[in-house]
Amino acid sequence: QKNGVSNGTLYKKTFIEHFEQAPMYVAVLTFLGFGVGTIFGYLRDFMRAWGLEKRNVAAEREQQKDFVPLYQDFENFYTRNLYMRIRDNWNRPICSVPGPQFDLMERVTDDYNWTFRFTGRIIKNVINMGSYNYLGFAETDVNALKTVTIELQKYGTGICSTRQEMGTLDKHVELEKLVAKFLGVEDAMVFGMGFATNSMNIPALVGKGCLILSDELNHTSLVLGARLSGATIRIFKHNNMQSLEKLLRDAIIYGQPRSRRAWRKIIILVEGIYSMEGSIVRLPEIVSLKKKYKAYLYLDEAHSIGAVGTTGRGVVEYFGMSPDDVDVLMGTFTKSFGAAGGYIAGKKELVDFLRTHSHSAVYATSMCPPVAEQIIRAMKCLMGLDGTTQGLQRVRQLGKNTRYFRRRLHEMGFIIYGNDDSPVVPLLLYMPGKIGAFARRMLEKNIGVVVVGFPATPITESRARFCVSAAHTREMLDTVLNALDELGDFLHLKYSRYSKSSHPELYEETRFELED
Which residues cross the membrane (predicted)? Predict the structure, then answer.
């Protein structure tokens, strides 16, 4: 389906997202494929149990036969019988910078993907369509990395301490001031790991007696942080404002279960760009709802910071909104900035509270100085503080590449998900047998792709996920598109019934008024 919104009150431009449904026969054949795979899985397990086939997986010891199974239970069934058949498409080791092209170490298997061995051959100049290198800052240019080299020689590689002890350097203070300035907020705090930025800080902000309203497609780091917090969690349908408003209204009316007391806090957890769907959060409507019902908003901009917005300042800038509309701004440096770590930004009171109460600040080792300098140089480039317009050019080039790549895929007849401006482009494969065939054939054409299947996606929605980069040239994208056109015909992947989707809206749009 195609969901287009043009609401003069909230949206300053048309908001278009594509979620076309596949024909019914595709869903039937997908379930049939999993069914056949499951039947053969049980047959293989039977043969292993009777010694007719070699057992390659971990097995229970005879002394533990009366214990609850540790390995050979149904949770492991999918891994050993279905995933193992296509395992060669993941964890491929590369041996170069993950730029627009990379070098890949060739490996082969002699036992149907149970083990691998390296051939010693290097596959050169594979077009990289899988890394989150949105702005092309994952690079090895000597001039670009000059300041990083200087900081490496000055500080070394590690801190060996936490932020609260001996681990706060002048580079961290400089970076935090720069992040706050970049985002237009009062203060910011940086952390050495992006995943932990969510999972270790959400428990510091909410706890027992609080309510978390979480989008059903939120990243695992948000889900883990919510679970660790001890707060009550309720899920709303992806980007569905009617579902979110119903939960907010019920939370206000009914309060906590049993006691009916008012919730201590209500916090909404959303992402800027959803990394598996390619969709962009409906931020204006969510801000309207959070103001209407007096809730807090936690926005994860891991994939959107640097990638969208006129100057790369994320979805807040993309929608022309104020950073003050979002209570907790979170993002990572692992994607657009070609580094590692994450940040939380907002009001000074919020950041000061986290400096004292964040588990990551208390227990985790600080961000290493060369990484901090890499983020500083990339952010200064985006802000134009390096005296060039190179950062702005990268943001614009990413937008051009994204729209061109998505438009061409639509025209070819593929079903792709997400927003027209999202550099995350999921191409639907559906059937389990096509996951491995797609990735292997693309690698034969010197194109590296990421394929994703159940349980990371719904069972009927296996996909290839492309990440467009500003570093991709038009020639690279055309090479990939030509290969996809050919492979789409060979594997029968062009399921779209509309070259340019014109579907009814996913749900009726409700108009929300922004309140002061």
Answer: 22-43
Q: Where are the domains of the chain?
A: 22-128+392-500, 144-383
286's CB contacts (< 8 A; 6+ apart) are 241, 244, 268, 270, 297
pTM for the full predicted model:
0.91
Reduce the DSSP state of residue 233 to 3 states and report it: strand
| pLDDT the model gives residue 63 | 83
Residues 6+ apart with CB under 8 A from 133: 98, 99, 100, 335, 338, 467, 469, 471
pLDDT at 363: 92
Please give the structure tokens belonging to residue 306: 């640097």
Q: What residues have CB less than 8 Å from 32, skipping those under 6 apart?
A: none
C-alpha distances in Å from residue 296, one per residue of 292, 313, 327: 11, 21, 6
pLDDT for 516: 38
Q: Can you tell me the distance from the alpha carbon of 413 to that of 114, in angstroms, rounded to the nearest whole number? A: 36
Q: What is the number of alpha carbons within 13 Å of residue 339 lying toward its C-beta?
A: 28
Alpha-carbon distance of 108 to 102, in angstroms, equals 19
Going by the DSSP 8-state scheme, the letter that residue 312 receives in this structure is: S
One CATH from 2.40.10.220, 3.40.640.10, 3.40.50.2300, 3.90.1170.40 for 144-383? 3.40.640.10
Tokens of 128: 């990289």
pLDDT of residue 209: 95
Pick the CATH number of 22-128+392-500 from 3.90.1150.10, 3.40.50.360, 2.30.180.10, 3.60.15.10: 3.90.1150.10
pLDDT digits (tens, 9 = 90+) for 304-330: 999 999 999 999 999 999 999 999 999
Report the pLDDT value the prediction gives residue 503, as an integer from 0 to 100. Answer: 38
The HSE-up count of residue 248 (CA atoms within 13 Å, CB side) is: 24
Order the strands of the 15-18 sheet from edge to edge: 2-5, 15-18, 418-419
Q: Which residues have CB under 8 Å from 319's CB, separation 6+?
A: 11, 12, 283, 284
Q: At what angle do helices 390-412 and 474-490 cross, to 10 degrees?
A: 20
CA distance 78 to 424: 27
Residue 55 pLDDT: 79
Are 459 and 34 within 8 A, CB to CB?
yes
Spans of the chain, pLDDT less than 50: 6-8, 501-516
Q: Which helix (H) or strand (E) holds 106?
A: strand 101-108
Contact between residue 511 and residue 7 where contact means Cβ atoms under 8 Å apart: yes
Using an 8 Å Cβ cutoff, are 193 and 332 in contact? no
